[in-house]
From TrEMBL:
Residues 330-346 have a biased composition (Basic and acidic residues). This is Stomatin-like protein 2, mitochondrial. GO terms for cellular component: mitochondrial inner membrane. Pfam families: Band_7, Band_7_C. Keywords: Mitochondrion. It comes from Pogonophryne albipinna. One of its GO terms (biological process) is mitochondrion organization. It is a lipid-anchor. Residues 325-346 are annotated as: Disordered. The keyword rRNA-binding does not apply. Mitochondrial protein that probably regulates the biogenesis and the activity of mitochondria. Stimulates cardiolipin biosynthesis, binds cardiolipin-enriched membranes where it recruits and stabilizes some proteins including prohibitin and may therefore act in the organization of functional microdomains in mitochondrial membranes. Through regulation of the mitochondrial function may play a role into several biological processes including cell migration, cell proliferation, T-cell activation, calcium homeostasis and cellular response to stress. It is found in: Mitochondrion inner membrane. Gene3D superfamilies: Band 7 domain. Belongs to the band 7/mec-2 family.
Length: 346
């Protein structure tokens, strides 16, 4: 009989346990029921925690960190909210991009509870709700981008997801601080095509760079030849100018020297014994010219009196005397004409 009563009581207890959690207790409350502190009248709340107190089943107040007092039986701690920044691992999920490429993406979510009242009564399980919201937002944001933009605009994608989560989680008292995509898994075939595209792009860049290098080399060579020709022409021009200037200076120097020699010779001839000096100079020149015979050409024309030096000198001096008389006569006639021109007419 005792066995029958125990079996009946056990069955009733099991039915009550099965019915009560389903009707009155939520999964989040079941997880937190074991961690909720008991009402011991005097309570010490840790820093960065918020305890939600219910009095006779209704929200009463939120305990601040430090020493707090509660009424036994009437007050109970309904929720304990952690105000620290929490890190939630978003599970891997599939998403389709704008160009119909299926991607496998997982991420990390960083959030913090700002309002313990909303986090306790606004949503059943805040962390689960934010995780689901992050997954749905990620899928919707990825659907707006192509595969190439997903990798290039990763930072903007994270900011868009955070903004969308904050708009929906404001009623839950939760603030999403940042969201980071950990890994993006691409199908093998798409990955192969991406690698081929990268290789083709690199080959294209290499070809373009090689052609640009060849062009720059040709331009540099042409510029070098041009500069070399310009410098050579300028050098030749400067050399010709220098040679011409040197030759002109040499001609002027020779002319001045010859002029001075003639002046000195004329002055010497006007002096006493000038004829003798002129005869000596002519004789020296005759001897010097006679010594050069047969050195420049093989044909030699000699006068009949080649060995008679005195006759040659006499002949040269006769020519000189006739020329001197002629020049003297011309000078006198010029002076007389000048004198006649200067006389007044009567």
């Amino acid at each position: 009989m005792l066995r029958a009563l125990c079996r009946t009581g056990g069955a009733l207890l099991q039915q009550a346990q099965r019915a009560a959690p389903r009707l009155w207790v939520t999964p989040a409350q079941q997880r937190c029921a074991s961690s909720l502190p008991m009402n011991t009248v005097v309570l010490f709340v840790p820093q960065q925690e918020s305890w939600v107190v219910e009095r006779m089943g209704r929200f009463h107040r939120i305990l601040e960190p430090g020493l707090n007092f509660l009424i036994p039986v009437l007050d109970r701690i309904g929720y304990v909210q952690n105000l620290k920044e929490m890190v939630i691992d978003v599970p891997e999920q599939s998403a389709v991009s704008l160009d119909n490429v299926t991607l496998q993406i997982d991420g990390v979510l960083y959030l913090r509870i700002l309002d313990p009242y909303k986090a306790s009564y606004g949503v059943e399980d805040p962390q689960y709700a934010v995780t689901q919201l992050a997954q749905t937002t990620m899928r919707s944001e990825l659907g707006k981008l192509t595969l190439d933009k997903v990798f290039r605009e990763r930072e903007s994608l994270n900011s868009n997801i955070v903004q969308s989560i904050n708009q929906a989680s404001d009623e839950w008292g939760i603030r999403c601080l940042r969201y980071e995509i950990k890994d993006i898994y691409v199908p093998p075939r798409v990955k192969e095509s991406m690698q081929m595209q990268v290789e083709a792009e690199r080959k294209k860049r290499a070809t373009v760079l090689e052609s640009e290098g060849t062009r720059e080399a040709a331009i540099n060579i042409a510029e070098g030849h041009k500069q070399a020709q310009i410098l050579a022409s300028e050098g030749e021009k400067a050399e010709q100018i220098n040679n011409a200037s040197g030759e002109a200076q040499a001609v002027l120097a020779k002319a001045e020297a010859k002029s001075k020699a003639i002046r000195m010779l004329s002055d010497a001839l006007t002096e006493q014994n000038g004829d003798a000096a002129a005869s000596l100079s002519v004789a020296e020149q005759y001897v010097a010219a006679f010594s050069k015979l047969a050195k420049e050409t093989n044909t030699i024309l000699l006068p009949s009196s080649t060995g008679d030096i005195s006759s040659m000198v006499t002949q040269a001096m006769t020519i000189y005397s006739s020329l001197a008389k002629t020049s003297t006569h011309v000078v006198e006639e010029k002076k007389s004409d000048d004198d006649d021109g200067n006389k007044p007419h009567q």
